[in-house]
Each structure stands twice: as C-alpha cells, then as structure tokens.
Amino acid sequence: MNETIKGYVYRLKPTAKQINLINQTFGCVRKIWNILLLERKSIYELYGKYPELLNSHQYMNPKYIKEQFPYMYDVDSQSLTTAWLYLKQAYTNFFNQSHDEPKYKSRHNPIQSYTTHTTNDNIRIEDTYIKLPKLGLVKMKLHRALPQGSIIKAATIKKDGKHYYVSLRVEYEPLILGEKTFEKAIGLDYTLQGLYMDSEGHQADYPNYYKESLEKLKKEQQISSRRVKGSSNYLKQKEKLASLHLHIKNQRKDFLHKASRYLVNTYDLISIETLDLTEMAKTKHFRKSIYDTSFGTFTRYLEYKAKDEGKILIKIDKYYPSTKTCSQCGRERDMLLFERTYHCMCGHKMDRDLNAAINIGVQGLIAYATKAYGTDAIAW
Ligand SMILES: [Zn+2]
Known about the structure:
This protein is α+β, with helices and mostly antiparallel strands. It has two domains: 4-172, no CATH class; 180-376, Nucleotidyltransferase, domain 5 (2-Layer Sandwich), CATH 3.30.420. It has nine helices and 16 strands. The longest helix is centred in the middle third of the chain and has 35 residues, at 232-266. Bound molecules: zinc ion. The site of zinc ion has 7 residues, from loops.
C-alpha cells in the first residue's frame, strides 16, 4: 500500500453562530490543556524527585474535567480528547528532551486552534461546504480539490487574527496507471475568452497589461490608416506599429511560458485538445487570426516542458465531441455556438467550457490507462 498523507488548508466562512461555537471550543480546549498542565506541574514539583511515584500518577481523565465544567459538553468532544493527547505527547517530548516544557495557552494569543479526528465520516466536504462535528456545514473556499480517493483523517480549525481556516490531514492512495505513478491530472479546454478553462474550473486568462497593449495597437492602427501613404508621418507611425507588435508578441510569449510552466510543475498528466483550428473555429467561433498563434505556441511550450520534466501530455482525438458530451452521464447533444451553459436531460447543468474540460481530462486518463493514445499523445 502506497499511502500518502498530505495537508490541505482552506479558508472558512463560518456564520456568526458557528463563530461563537468555534470560539467556545477554543476556550474549552485551552481550559482542558491548562488544567492538565497545572496538574502535571504540581505533580512534577511534588514527586519530581521520586520517579516511581511520578510514573504511577495517571493523567486526569478529560471526562472528569468535563463533569466539573458542564458547558464543555456543548463543544466537539473529540477536540477535548485531542487536547488531552497533545498534552501527553508534549510531556513525552519534554522528557525526551526533544522539546521545551509545555506552556500555558493564553486567550490573548491571536492564533487559536483545535483539532478533531474523523469518526464515522463525520468530517467531509459537501460541495463548497465542509461538515464538521457540532458545527454542521461550514462554508469554505475550495480553491483546490482534494485528490481523488482521499480520506480525511483529521481537521484543525484555526483562527488567525480575524480569519478562520481549516487544515485537513488527508490520506490517499496515488493513482497508478501503467508503470507511471501520478497524483494529479488535469484537462484543458481552449477558450475564446482567455486561454483555457481547466477541469477544476479555473480559467486562465491573459493579463490586463496584455489586453491594454492590444487596445493600444487597435488605436495606433486607426491613426496609421489616416496617414498619407509615403509621408514622413506615415513612416514614423509604421515604425511605431512594428515595435508595438514586437512588444505584444513578447508579452504574449511571456504569459504563455508562465502558464505552461505552472501546469507542468503542478500536474503529472495534462490532457489537451488536438489543435485543429478549422475545426475549432467551427465549434468555438474563434477569430482565427488573433488566437491561432497563441494556441499553437502554447501547445508547443507544453510539449517540450512536459518532456523536460518527465510529465505526460495527451492530445485527445480531434473528433472526440468534448463540447457536446455530458460530463455526468455521457449523453451527447448539439450545442449552439453561443450557448454558454450545458444542459443535459439527466439534469446536469454546467458551464460549457468546464463541461468540455472535464471530458477532456477524463478522456486523457482513459487514453493513458488503456494506452490507446497512439501517435497523437506525447508520453514519457
Ligand atoms: Zn447528462
């Protein structure tokens, strides 16, 4: 078994009621910790010289503390048990001389946290919410999905200043296909707006400075058309246009380099469309003159960067109907050029480009798994 444990941190957007309960839990966890610490310190002072007495002295049971402070029953009981375990561990580390003596926790520390462990699937992500014990569904900013097949082992709820976060300890088995092991795969759908939409819903768009340069070019071209051909002003304007063209080309290259570098560094398997501009112009209404150079260059950059890094790039069969296929049920339907949302009779409703990107990502995985990618795929 090749399990990997990783941490994922997400920003939380709790309701006022949930904030109250979270803060209450911080308080209870601090209290448990401080009571246990006080007890340990006193015992250490009393029996420090007599190790056999010290060892026989059991840690106070958190249940006993809860009975003294019944409001502790209102908060996640796992968080209290965890505090108790952490204190025991802190003392073990102290006695091992690997750590300093544990310290009291202060309510004035701007960073507060508690940790809870999963039992019976009680911690899980549901859409853009995370289900947490006692708190119920807490809104979160899911900027990055957990890897497929992940199991959430523990969650630490943290407050840093005004902001709340959850950090998840996740265990998963990496996907093994063929002889390659990889953890992260992604599909890209080239888009009319910007560069592409990926199968995680992230849209890569050109930076504003690039768009501003294009606007400027348009203006300068208009000025140029008003000049008398052959005049000195015409020639000056011509020179200005040439240098602006070069500037734009460099800005574009720079952006495409960064975008392809990011993908190759982040993902192990990248699936893209096979570049067929005539076909793409039909299904996506690309204005060929503006976009073709970018997609071609971007594809080339992806190819050689993937090769250098030992990553896999798969080009999906150009006849695969990524736009027409439902990424949920696999049915096909015709899509009009300006239909922005994919609606399927199965009830699936999704942004057109995202639906296509997911299809491309899945096709890439299937192609790789079955080694059916033939000559169109570049794999190492
Ligand atoms: Zn469907």
